Amino acid sequence: MRRLISASLAIFMTTTAAFAQAVPGGKLNLIVQPEPPSIMIGTTTNGPALLVGGNIYESLLRYDENLKPEPSLAKSWTVSDDGLTYTFTLQDGVKWHDGKSMTSADVLFSANDYLMKMQPRHRNLMTHVESVTAPDDKTVVFKLKQPFEAFIRGLAFYTMPVLPKHIYEGTDYATNPANDKPIGTGPFKFDEWKRGSYIHLVKNPDYYVKGKPYLDELYYQVIPDGASRSVAFETGNIDVVPGGSVENFDIPRLKDLPNTCTTEKGWEYFAPLSWLWLNNRKAPMDNVKFRQAVMYALDREFAKDVLWNGYGKVATGPLSSKLPFYKDVEPKYPHDVDKAKKLLKEAGYDGKPLKLLPLPYGETWQRWAEAVKQNLEEVGIPIEIEAADVAGWNQRTSNWEYDIAFTYLYQNGDPAIGVDRNYKTSQIAKGNPFNNVEGYSNPDLDKLFDEAAVAYPASKRQELYDQAQKKLQEDVPVAWLLELGFPTIYNCKVQDIVTTASGLPESMRDAWIKK
């Protein structure tokens, strides 16, 4: 029987769990939603794949909630005074799940070969790298072309996972059988995947961190229906509900259940930011005054307080406040109907009806679309809400077949890694829903982003990003909505459930069950 626990006590338990004595043993049942197409995160990097695969694969570094790097497969590292040379010393005694030793050769293979062919995010990072070498089995050296301060934040498990050379070298990476039964170095090993039902991971007894993991097994349960996911937690069949797994309107009821804890931690690295794509190629979205009017029309405080139950915060611009180099700059866009109407008149807007494409991620997003429709129609912009499934949304946004469309993207620890891709002219390319989909182009901003990416030291980067944020605030290429808050809901018996900036996907090695 769960017992009722106050919110303040729940927070105390979460923050002080590290001081309690961890107890080995037990299993956790978590939700994975939707079921991932693969958990081989060298090629599949959507949220559900990372949730499971992050416990199988690792990278050189982890990051704390302030995005400070911590040891993972690298136990230590140094950066040269000129910012060009990063030298990593690998952990001792690391083994792949099939018993083979992990060495620097695996890091080189992953960085120079596999990921260069299979992961665009990694290729983008490596444009700043001149060479990756290994003077011995325990040392890896990255030599950069120019200082790139963001590099140290680009070595997370899902941006540069280390993969087994002896499994993949000389094979077709996309069809290698190991993709279905992944072999990593992480705290948990793949055991079974019963499609449509669950994914089962078991404790890695040879894990190089002494005493970890504490848990014996993890079950990632596939429950397609949102209401059923909520019921599964209510009845105790599920121990952990990852952020975004249930509808927002169910969260207040679930968090009030006896012996239930919640946390918003574990999203600092991803820093999900939501906005409306405004198709800058088409009238009236090609007019900056129209785009500014949209910003003033939106009641974003309502969206946060009512649709998201107070989780997250209103976005002030293109950078999440969780990111380095964030600054709250002018102009600001509070909800102001009169100002929106005035700008629409100045823009010469003729009342042309526009179509709004919601994110097909559940009832919460549909309700948000209805709220935005009401906001825009209140200032005189007629809106028709369109319907699309996930595949249809991907196709429409990738091919620029929309007027206004919802989205949210991860910011990946640094604006040079996860932000400038959405605004630079060079990132305008059909076929990708995660780049410059709105078609905004400003040569001055392109130059600012290019200079800021490689400026050294960090203080110089801050100056340039301040200018870039101000320019974007003025031009409003997209309509920024919220820094999304995705609370993890879990049984309070689970301790140390979030210990890094990436949350559940790599914190299970630290989690344990209080008896």
From TrEMBL:
Signal peptide coordinates: 1-22
Keyword Cytoplasm tagged: no
Recorded GO MF terms: peptide transmembrane transporter activity
BP term (GO), one: peptide transport
Any one cellular-component term (Gene Ontology): ATP-binding cassette (ABC) transporter complex
Source organism, top-level taxon: Bacteria
Subcellular location: Periplasm
Protein keywords: Signal
PANTHER family per UniProt: D,D-DIPEPTIDE-BINDING PERIPLASMIC PROTEIN DDPA-RELATED (PTHR30290:SF38), PERIPLASMIC BINDING COMPONENT OF ABC TRANSPORTER (PTHR30290)
Annotated family: Belongs to the bacterial solute-binding protein 5 family.
Name of the protein in question: Peptide/nickel transport system substrate-binding protein
